[in-house]
């Protein structure tokens, strides 16, 4: 440890270096520091500052060395600890950064900026007790700053001391005049939110009345007031409030739910399930929505809710009334509005309504097609039934001849989506082709055709259809993204990337995923590369998604400080709630699963496989670097643009090089366990990782968590057997406590023998495809009869073909059979190729036929070009001949003229 003070001149240079560092003039700052270190090479603060500057210019290893050296020489200086804290903060080591900030503050407790940085790091690391303590100190030191009052109240909220949070905000509002009305409104809402969270609903309701004059967002106030009145069971007042809200927006589900609850038709906070309504509820709802329909006749939501409570003939009449205006207007989203009727079709009355919808739409098709070809509805002989007559009169009255010609395509489109949802693909294609024939310029039809091909397993045609849609409107970013997605799912990564890059302007040829932060794209890229067994690229793409979400988490402090400054305290509450569960979002879960599965695969395959991947990556890197040297567009970029597109690991080589793949997988898994504990996938991944790591206690915890959610899970069955087999093989190396825990687990599950346990699971789940496959895999693990296991795996019952996810399940089985023996995969394809006749995975010959047709077309095209060329040559020859003949005639004429002139001259001579 050294205690070196600088002379006045050097101290000024050092202060200037700090200013330049704050202004992000890093190279100039480095020059100033070097000048100080030339004369005082052991000056701790200068060494630490040099470390921070080097970090900013991407010299991380040197930066760490200088920060550590500065700290070792100046361990009593607050600056060296602060510099090391900043280094750790910028390298995402937040826990270490927090410790360093704490040590720095111990050395200089009068430094307010240091205390603020410490409090920010405490919030980022979720050290709420420390955050409260720091904010309390800041409030005492600077009571005139409103941010400190807000932050102290917020810190108490985070520590669930709601009374103190309320007292703090009350003290601030009573002792300070708040002139900004928006700020006052936000503070009032925050105050009210605290009262509600504390559970004092009566006071919360009274407080809402008191703050009404200060509130700027009146609708938000009314929503809160209505909810409070419902909680306090003041139903009449709550109903009035919801009617006031409904006047403002009659298409809000929340308001209609509120009215139903205020009228005590539906219990408060109960899940709304229309198919479970009893007769009394149906009657009350019918009365309610009849009145609402008269008041708000144009509200599609109210009309839809009327449909939800109708059945049989009543439903038919209501549906006709509901759907006709939409058909006349040509609303493409008609099916999306009615998608809820296609849920829970295993319930008989729900299926009955779908059949009625189908019948009505068929009737529309008949009538509209008759009108289109100039016939009259009177030609039909379906007038016997009284109800039929009434429906006909409604339809005839509502649909006019001129409108019907345009309306027909939307009926076709609806029926296409209807049959697609019911997995009747033949009929879906029939009506879609009719729709395209009717209106070949309708944008949505080609997009849906792509989706339809996707559903039947033909991603090749699906991608072509969506690409055709994209070409109809090249300025549409959404359909551009859809086209990208479809090409990636067809494993055409290069084509997909090219289309995505269309909207990247000048840098479209050099995509750098660090700057895009488009998580759906990186996930799709990862999945596409994984299917192609390009593990380094796949890992890079999935890791990019995880980095995106880490960046969102890291950037929360910027918004946190803004909210405190502007008084947006409710937004601050939402921010903390969001970041507390950011790693539970679907995109992150997908990417995390991909990363963990790849690292587990690398672990299983061993070091030799890893070396092969690294060699492949090195080849690809060389190719990329060579291409850059000759790429004119890249060479034209300036230095800043090159930084944007530069990637130090373009093919994921650094990620593949890891020597401890299980530890890398564990880092991602821990984030999932902290924030996504509700997801079954989290615990399944945990079981896989902990089993391979030999962490048996954690593996058993994961097993118990999975069993609480889904004790009959087919994935758990296989993983459990793998776990027990591994534990059995390593029994001698395990301590007595772990062995006892494993034995207790086996007793709890009544496992005497793994083979018997497997057979019991099969008998229990004999009609479930995934469960049978899991049983077959366990049989192979246990070394039992291979032929019998394959037979179980390949069996698909007729009833299972009604399962909407069957194609994907069968594709998974196909991949498993390929990994066992290609001959079994061939048999499986042949067995179910007719059932999945559109799927290119089950019928690979489809792609071969297309290739042959494409080659034929290309050859025909080339032949045509050759014929045209020959024709052109012949024409040219003919032209040449014509030109030659003309030239000869012209020459003859000239000769003749010359002879005539000469004759005339001779005659003249003779005459003379």
TrEMBL record:
> Keyword annotations for this protein?
Coiled coil, Repeat, TPR repeat
> Sorted alphabetically, which Pfam families does this protein's record hold?
NatA_aux_su (PF12569), TPR_16 (PF13432)
**Which InterPro entries does this chain map to?**
NatA_aux_su (IPR021183), TPR-like_helical_dom_sf (IPR011990), TPR_rpt (IPR019734)
Give an example GO cellular component term for this record. Answer: cytoplasm
Question: What PROSITE patterns does the database record attribute to this sequence?
Answer: TPR
User: What organism does the UniProt record list as the source?
Assistant: Anaeramoeba flamelloides
**Name assigned to this protein:** N(Alpha)-acetyltransferase 15/16 isoform a
Q: Where is the signal peptide?
A: none
User: What stretches of residues are TPR repeats?
Assistant: 409-442, 680-713
Q: Report if keyword Membrane is assigned.
A: no
- Positions the record marks as coiled coil are 610-640
Region (Disordered): which ranges? 872-912
SMART domains from the xrefs?
TPR
């Amino acid at each position: 440890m050294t205690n070196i003070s600088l002379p006045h001149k050097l101290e000024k240079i050092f202060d200037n270096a700090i200013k330049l560092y704050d202004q992000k003039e890093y190279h100039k700052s480095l020059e100033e520091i070097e000048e100080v270190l030339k004369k005082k090479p052991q000056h701790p603060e200068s060494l630490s500052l040099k470390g921070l500057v080097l970090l900013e210019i991407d010299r991380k290893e040197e930066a760490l060395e200088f920060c550590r050296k500065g700290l070792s020489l100046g361990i009593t200086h607050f600056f060296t600890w602060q510099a090391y804290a900043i280094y750790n903060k910028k390298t995402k080591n937040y826990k270490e950064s927090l410790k360093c900030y704490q040590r720095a503050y111990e050395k200089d407790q009068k430094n307010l900026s240091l205390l603020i940085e410490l409090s920010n790091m405490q919030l980022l690391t979720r050290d709420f007790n420390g955050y409260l303590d720091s904010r309390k100190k800041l409030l005492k030191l600077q009571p005139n700053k409103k941010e400190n009052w807000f932050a102290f109240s917020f810190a108490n909220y985070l520590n669930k001391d709601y009374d103190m949070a309320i007292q703090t905000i009350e003290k601030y509002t009573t002792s300070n005049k708040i002139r900004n009305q928006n700020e006052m409104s936000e503070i009032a809402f925050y105050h009210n939110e605290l009262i509600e969270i504390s559970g004092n609903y009566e006071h919360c309701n009274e407080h809402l009345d008191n703050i009404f004059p200060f509130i700027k967002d009146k609708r938000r106030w009314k929503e809160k007031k209505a909810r409070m009145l419902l909680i306090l069971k003041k139903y009449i007042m709550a109903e009035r409030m919801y009617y006031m809200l409904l006047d403002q927006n009659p298409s809000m589900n929340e308001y209609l739910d509120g009215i139903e609850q205020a009228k005590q038709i539906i219990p408060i906070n109960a899940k709304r399930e229309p198919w479970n309504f009893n007769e009394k509820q149906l009657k009350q709802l019918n009365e309610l929505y009849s009145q609402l329909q008269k008041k708000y006749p144009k509200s599609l939501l109210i009309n839809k809710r009327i449909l939800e409570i109708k059945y049989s003939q009543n439903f038919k009449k209501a549906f006709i009334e509901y759907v006709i205006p939409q058909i006349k207007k040509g609303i493409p989203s008609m099916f999306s509005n009615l998608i809820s009727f296609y849920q829970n079709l295993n319930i008989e009355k729900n299926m009955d309504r779908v059949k009625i919808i189908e019948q009505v739409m068929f009737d529309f098709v008949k009538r509209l097609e008759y009108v289109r070809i100039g016939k009259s509805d009177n030609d039909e002989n379906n007038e016997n039934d009284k109800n039929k007559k009434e429906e006909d009169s409604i339809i005839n009255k509502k649909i006019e001849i001129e409108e019907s010609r345009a309306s027909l395509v939307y009926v076709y489109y609806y029926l296409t989506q209807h049959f697609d949802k019911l997995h009747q693909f033949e009929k879906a294609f029939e009506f879609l082709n009719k729709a395209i024939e009717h209106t070949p310029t309708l944008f949505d039809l080609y997009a849906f055709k792509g989706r339809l091909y996707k559903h039947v397993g033909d991603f090749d045609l699906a991608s072509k259809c969506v690409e055709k849609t994209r070409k109809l409107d090249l300025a549409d970013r959404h359909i551009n993204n859809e086209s990208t997605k479809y090409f990636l799912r067809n494993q055409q990564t290069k084509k997909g990337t090219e289309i995505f890059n269309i909207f990247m302007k000048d840098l479209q040829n050099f995509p750098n995923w660090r700057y895009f932060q488009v998580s759906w794209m990186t996930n799709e890229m990862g999945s596409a590369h994984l299917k192609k067994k390009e593990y380094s690229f796949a890992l890079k793409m999935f890791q990019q998604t995880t980095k995106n979400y880490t960046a969102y988490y890291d950037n929360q402090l910027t918004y946190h400080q803004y909210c405190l400054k502007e008084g947006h305290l409710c937004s601050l509450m939402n921010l903390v709630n969001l970041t507390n569960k950011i790693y539970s979002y679907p995109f992150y879960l997908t990417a995390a699963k991909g990363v963990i599965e790849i690292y587990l695969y690398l672990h299983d395959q061993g070091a030799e496989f890893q070396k092969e991947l690294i060699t492949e990556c090195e080849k690809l890197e060389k190719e990329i670097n060579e291409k850059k040297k000759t790429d004119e567009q890249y060479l034209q970029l300036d230095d800043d643009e090159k930084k944007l597109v530069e990637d130090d690991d373009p093919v994921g080589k650094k990620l593949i090089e890891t020597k401890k793949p299980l530890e890398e997988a564990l880092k991602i898994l821990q984030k999932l366990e902290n924030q996504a504990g509700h997801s079954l996938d989290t615990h399944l991944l945990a079981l896989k990782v902990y089993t391979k790591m030999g962490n048996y206690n954690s593996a058993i915890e994961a097993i118990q968590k999975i069993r609480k959610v889904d004790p009959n899970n087919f994935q758990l069955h296989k993983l459990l057997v793998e776990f027990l087999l591994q534990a059995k093989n390593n029994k001698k190396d395990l301590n007595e406590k772990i062995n006892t825990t494993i034995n207790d687990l086996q007793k709890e599950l009544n496992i005497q023998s793994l083979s018997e346990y497997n057979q019991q699971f099969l008998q229990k789940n004999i009609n479930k495809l995934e469960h049978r496959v899991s049983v077959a895999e366990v049989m192979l693990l246990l070394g039992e009869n291979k032929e019998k296991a394959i037979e179980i795996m390949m069996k698909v019952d007729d009833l299972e073909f009604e399962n909407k996810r069957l194609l994907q399940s069968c594709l998974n089985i196909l991949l498993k059979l390929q990994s066992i023996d290609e001959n079994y995969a061939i048999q499986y394809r042949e067995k179910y190729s007719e059932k999945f006749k559109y799927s290119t995975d089950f019928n690979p010959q489809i792609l071969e036929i297309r290739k042959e047709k494409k080659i034929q077309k290309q050859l025909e095209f080339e032949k045509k070009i050759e014929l045209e060329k020959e024709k052109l040559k012949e024409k040219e020859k003919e032209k040449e001949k014509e030109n030659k003949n003309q030239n000869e005639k012209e020459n003859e004429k000239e000769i003749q003229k010359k002879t005539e002139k000469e004759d005339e001259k001779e005659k003249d001579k003779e005459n003379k």
